[in-house]
Design a protein that fits this description.
The structure holds 2 protein chains of 2 kinds. By secondary structure, chain A is an all-beta fold. Chain A is rod-shaped and about 55 Å long. In chain A, about 75% of the residues are buried. The chains are: A mainly beta, B mainly alpha.
Chain lengths: ~20, ~425
């Protein structure tokens, strides 16, 4: 029996620097 | 690696968190590296047999007795190794897997819209969760919910409090103003990320800070992968802590404005936060709200699966075979991913077009003003205004370029640097 290993997403919360526009 | 395994081999696993079953899968992983996978219940049963330090032949026999057929154990162990879950075989340490800290080479999930694989600087790691638990006590959670309601309620009640683009002008000279806004913006970024780390620590997890990129944006980011070790409903507090802190700051600014304290500064801070909120709700990037939605919908790797599906679609247009096998993604998730693909393409295109049509021309105009100022020589104030602005732009774009290069290099190498 083949067992599926599914990698899960890394969790990286972010906030953009508002300066730049 | 499987050549090293015999029927008598005993596999020694790193300490692994094993979650509860949801939708026919269980989250399993290492809190110390942030690598987590989804396994079917029979995969967890096989993992537990390995964790009991049984010889490979005995693992096969017991699994076969329970499930009616033997497992493809060599393939399973190779998969665990790739995830960095195996510490040693027969007492001999195994080298770390290819993927325990980074993304696999040539995986589109790792590169197009940015994404740092290094875990960053651990924040508050030495502070015991019991000393911070009060921060997420029920009374305080109610206060935070009140803040989320109070800010829009105040702006609806008094529309003059709502942020406007003119609020970005804190100072009458354009270039020093840009420097001031940059200082305010980066201060808010740091405090936002610190709030994530505080809430994560209160839940017994650790946030790791670094600088990253999302599309064209330079971002502060906190890696929180080990929140997968806590119940799904408990993950919302760490995800929303940054925006909650931002709203507390905005509420303070609105109170200052109502009390006529602080001059223009409260409005500038409120406007700066408002811009970051537009970013947070742009969930075609991996933002705080993106993770809230992914958590609520119980999706394993929405962004990665979306990019793999799009890569397959592009190859399909060229009549090539799909590059990625998505058969392991549940149909429930695939239905959401197909819709998200459209939103992802539209959102990403809009951001890139907006940057090219609005931000770049404005930047060029301001650089011309800076150049004119610098032409007048160091005796004039305009020279230093211009020099400061050029330095700011060089810092922003230099950092963005460095982050892009760093992520690209790590993706190519297939592994990331050691966690700090």
């Amino acid at each position: 029996m083949k067992i599926q290993i599914r990698k899960l997403e890394r969790i990286e919360t972010t906030v953009a620097c508002a300066c730049g526009s | 690696m499987s050549a090293l395994l015999t029927d008598d081999s005993i596999v020694d696993l790193h300490p692994l968190h094993i979650g509860t079953e949801e939708d026919g899968a269980v989250e399993v992983g290492r809190a110390d590296t942030g690598m987590f996978v989804a396994l079917p219940p029979e995969g967890v049963a096989l993992l537990r047999l390995l964790a009991d330090h049984l010889p490979m032949a005995e693992v096969r026999r017991r699994f076969g007795d329970s499930y009616g057929e033997p497992p493809d154990l060599d393939d399973f162990v190779a998969g665990l190794h790739e995830c960095g879950f195996i510490r040693a075989v027969d007492g001999v340490p195994w080298p770390e897997g290819d993927d325990e800290r980074g993304a696999t080479e040539a995986d589109p999930a790792a590169s197009p819209a940015g994404g740092t694989t290094m875990r960053g600087i651990a924040l508050l790691g030495g502070l015991g969760p019991e000393r911070l638990r009060w921060l997420l006590s029920r009374p305080l959670l109610l206060v935070f919910a009140g803040v989320w309601l109070a800010v829009p309620a105040l702006m609806l009640a008094d529309p003059s409090l709502a942020p406007r683009p003119s609020d970005a002008l804190l100072y009458h000279r354009v270039l020093p103003n840009a420097l001031l806004v940059a200082v305010i913006a980066w201060t808010l970024v740091m405090l936002h990320e610190f709030a994530h780390a505080l809430a994560a620590r209160a839940r017994g997890c650790t946030g790791r800070f670094s600088v990253g990129r999302r599309l064209v944006f330079l971002v502060g980011q906190t890696e929180l992968s080990d929140v997968r070790t806590i119940a799904r409903r408990q993950r919302y507090a760490p995800y929303l802590a940054g925006m909650t802190w931002d709203l507390i700051v905005v509420l303070g600014c609105l109170c200052c404005e109502l009390a006529a304290v602080g001059g223009q500064l409260p409005r500038t801070v409120t406007y700066t936060v408002a811009l970051t909120f537009i970013y947070q709700f742009s969930v075609f990037m991996r933002t705080d709200i993106y993770y809230v939605i992914v958590n609520a919908l119980r999706l394993g790797d929405l962004m990665g699966d979306t990019r793999r599906l799009l890569a397959n679609a592009v190859r399909g247009l060229r009549h090539s075979e799909p590059a990625y096998d998505l058969s392991g993604v549940p149909e429930r998730e695939m239905r959401i991913i197909r819709w998200y693909c459209v939103y992802y393409l539209l959102g990403s295109s809009t951001v890139i077009a907006g940057s090219l049509l609005l931000s770049v021309p404005a930047l060029v105009r301001m650089l011309r003003i800076a150049a004119d100022g610098m032409a007048s020589g160091p005796a004039a104030a305009g020279f230093w205004d211009g020099a400061g602005f050029v330095a700011l732009v060089a810092f922003q774009f230099g950092t963005l370029g460095y982050v892009g290069f760093r992520d690209h290099r790590r993706t190519r190498a297939g592994t990331a640097a050691t966690a700090v």
